[in-house]
């Protein structure tokens, strides 16, 4: 029996998301989520996609990630898709930070685990949870390849001129300070899908990808390779996000310490959890912000305008970096669903060949689609991201050839 199935795990600090895919035909067999791990009100949600069944939900305490993955295994087994299936080729894990070392998907061994652990100081919220998911999955299927797919890997093609910060080189190297970038699996998938939408090979296309969700990032992709991205050492840099500030004068931190009397931890919480849209207007849901704007709320309008101003600056900057732009692709929750954001982001950029067609832009849902006018010099597209498929494809490409 051929081994064509890949289980994709995204293990967060208090949740585990999963999908089971068959790479033989590209179908999704099951998907689910275990959230609020460690609480009495943990939720297990499972959908058997291949069988066409409805979503099953149950609540109750899920003590830890070990229990969460066992709950996942039970749900899969109930649909005849258990982890003991001989068709399962590998388990692919999303790992947020791979540093400079991991530039491609990697089969996990003790050396890889140690390196992911060594990177915890630059990804303290994500890498520990990713490690827990890998170790728990390994315990459940020790005979199966565990493959780490790194959010940072797609961005390792950036030239040093884009990746380096202008600080003392010795200090930067000692503490691994540089721009790493994140959302790499999404940027990789969307840049390729955009080229396909244009009927071209990725090597022929220059794309600006705008991944706009609660976390948001931009990338400049030349011929299928990332040459710049907005997130940096951490996911805090760059665009205005749901709760993160994005770009800011670093001296603000010193000012808050010296004048505001705030600790490093308090400032960390401020910039990561109490800034961005929620800091500007109290809401980080773009739908609610747009509703408030329609009702005449000036604070919501200012938050939206700041969000768009930053976004427009990055479009212009990456246009300059690439020299020639074939497409601008919007993706993720806001990018795929907020027509007002897409329209505002390119408004006034007609001189660069950027515009949206009102009717096309208003269409909701569906697959990859162009929203620019017919014959536009630069295509503007909505391209739904699929990070799970990207992880599965990279995992299977690494291990599937041996099955």
Automatic annotation (TrEMBL):
<feature type="site" description="Transition state stabilizer">
    <location>
        <position position="183"/>
    </location>
</feature>
<keyword id="KW-0963">Cytoplasm</keyword>
<feature type="binding site">
    <location>
        <position position="17"/>
    </location>
    <ligand>
        <name>ATP</name>
    </ligand>
</feature>
<keyword id="KW-0460">Magnesium</keyword>
<keyword id="KW-0808">Transferase</keyword>
<dbReference type="InterPro" id="IPR000890">
    <property type="entry name" value="Aliphatic_acid_kin_short-chain"/>
</dbReference>
<dbReference type="GO" id="GO:0006085">
    <property type="term" value="P:acetyl-CoA biosynthetic process"/>
</dbReference>
<keyword id="KW-0067">ATP-binding</keyword>
<dbReference type="GO" id="GO:0000287">
    <property type="term" value="F:magnesium ion binding"/>
</dbReference>
<feature type="binding site">
    <location>
        <begin position="211"/>
        <end position="215"/>
    </location>
    <ligand>
        <name>ATP</name>
    </ligand>
</feature>
<comment type="subunit">
    <text>Homodimer.</text>
</comment>
<feature type="site" description="Transition state stabilizer">
    <location>
        <position position="244"/>
    </location>
</feature>
<feature type="binding site">
    <location>
        <position position="10"/>
    </location>
    <ligand>
        <name>Mg(2+)</name>
    </ligand>
</feature>
<dbReference type="Pfam" id="PF00871">
    <property type="entry name" value="Acetate_kinase"/>
</dbReference>
<dbReference type="GO" id="GO:0006083">
    <property type="term" value="P:acetate metabolic process"/>
</dbReference>
<dbReference type="InterPro" id="IPR043129">
    <property type="entry name" value="ATPase_NBD"/>
</dbReference>
<dbReference type="GO" id="GO:0008776">
    <property type="term" value="F:acetate kinase activity"/>
</dbReference>
<feature type="binding site">
    <location>
        <position position="387"/>
    </location>
    <ligand>
        <name>Mg(2+)</name>
    </ligand>
</feature>
<dbReference type="InterPro" id="IPR023865">
    <property type="entry name" value="Aliphatic_acid_kinase_CS"/>
</dbReference>
<comment type="function">
    <text>Catalyzes the formation of acetyl phosphate from acetate and ATP. Can also catalyze the reverse reaction.</text>
</comment>
<comment type="pathway">
    <text>Metabolic intermediate biosynthesis; acetyl-CoA biosynthesis; acetyl-CoA from acetate: step 1/2.</text>
</comment>
<feature type="binding site">
    <location>
        <begin position="333"/>
        <end position="337"/>
    </location>
    <ligand>
        <name>ATP</name>
    </ligand>
</feature>
<dbReference type="GO" id="GO:0005737">
    <property type="term" value="C:cytoplasm"/>
</dbReference>
<dbReference type="InterPro" id="IPR004372">
    <property type="entry name" value="Ac/propionate_kinase"/>
</dbReference>
<feature type="binding site">
    <location>
        <begin position="285"/>
        <end position="287"/>
    </location>
    <ligand>
        <name>ATP</name>
    </ligand>
</feature>
<protein>
    <recommendedName>
        <fullName>Acetate kinase</fullName>
        <ecNumber>2.7.2.1</ecNumber>
    </recommendedName>
</protein>
<keyword id="KW-0418">Kinase</keyword>
<comment type="similarity">
    <text>Belongs to the acetokinase family.</text>
</comment>
<keyword id="KW-0547">Nucleotide-binding</keyword>
<keyword id="KW-0479">Metal-binding</keyword>
<feature type="active site" description="Proton donor/acceptor">
    <location>
        <position position="151"/>
    </location>
</feature>
<dbReference type="GO" id="GO:0005524">
    <property type="term" value="F:ATP binding"/>
</dbReference>
<feature type="binding site">
    <location>
        <position position="94"/>
    </location>
    <ligand>
        <name>substrate</name>
    </ligand>
</feature>
């Amino acid at each position: 029996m051929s081994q064509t199935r890949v289980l994709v795990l995204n293990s967060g600090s208090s949740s585990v998301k999963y999908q089971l895919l068959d790479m033989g035909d590209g179908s999704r067999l099951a998907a689910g989520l275990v959230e609020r791990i460690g609480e009495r009100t943990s939720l297990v949600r499972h959908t058997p996609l291949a069988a066409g069944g409805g979503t099953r939900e149950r609540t109750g305490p899920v003590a830890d990630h070990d229990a969460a993955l066992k709950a996942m295994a039970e749900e899969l087994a109930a649909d005849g898709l258990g982890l003991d299936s001989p068709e399962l080729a590998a388990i692919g894990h999303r790992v947020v930070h791979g540093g400079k070392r991991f530039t491609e998907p990697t089969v996990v061994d003790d050396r890889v685990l140690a390196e992911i652990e060594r990177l915890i100081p630059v990804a303290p919220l994500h890498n520990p949870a990713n490690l827990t998911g890998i170790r728990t999955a390994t315990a459940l299927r020790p005979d199966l390849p565990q493959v780490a797919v790194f959010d940072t890997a797609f961005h390792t093609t950036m030239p040093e001129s884009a990746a380096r910060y202008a600080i003392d080189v010795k200090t930067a190297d000692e503490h691994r300070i540089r721009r790493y970038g994140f959302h790499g699996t999404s940027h990789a998938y969307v840049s390729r899908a955009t080229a396909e939408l244009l009927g071209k090979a990725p090597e022929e296309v220059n794309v600006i990808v705008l991944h706009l969700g609660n976390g948001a990032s931009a990338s400049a992709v030349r011929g299928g390779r990332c040459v710049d991205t907005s997130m940096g050492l951490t996911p805090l840099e760059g665009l205005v996000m749901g709760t993160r500030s994005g770009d800011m004068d670093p001296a603000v931190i010193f000012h808050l310490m010296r004048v505001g009397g705030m600790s490093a931890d308090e400032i960390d919480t401020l910039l990561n959890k109490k800034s961005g849209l929620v800091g500007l207007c109290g809401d980080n849901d773009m739908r609610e912000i747009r509703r408030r704007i329609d009702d005449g709320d000036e604070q919501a309008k200012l938050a939206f305008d700041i969000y768009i101003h930053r976004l427009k600056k990055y479009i212009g900057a990456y246009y300059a970096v690439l020299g020639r732009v074939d497409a601008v692709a919007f993706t993720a929750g806001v990018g795929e669903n907020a027509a007002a954001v897409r329209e505002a982001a390119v408004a006034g950029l007609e001189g660069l060949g950027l515009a949206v067609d009102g009717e096309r832009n208003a269409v909701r849902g569906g697959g990859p689609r162009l929203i620019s006018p017919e014959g536009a010099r630069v295509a503007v597209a909505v391209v739904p991201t699929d990070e799970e498929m990207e992880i599965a494809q990279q995992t299977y490409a690494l291990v599937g050839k041996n099955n």
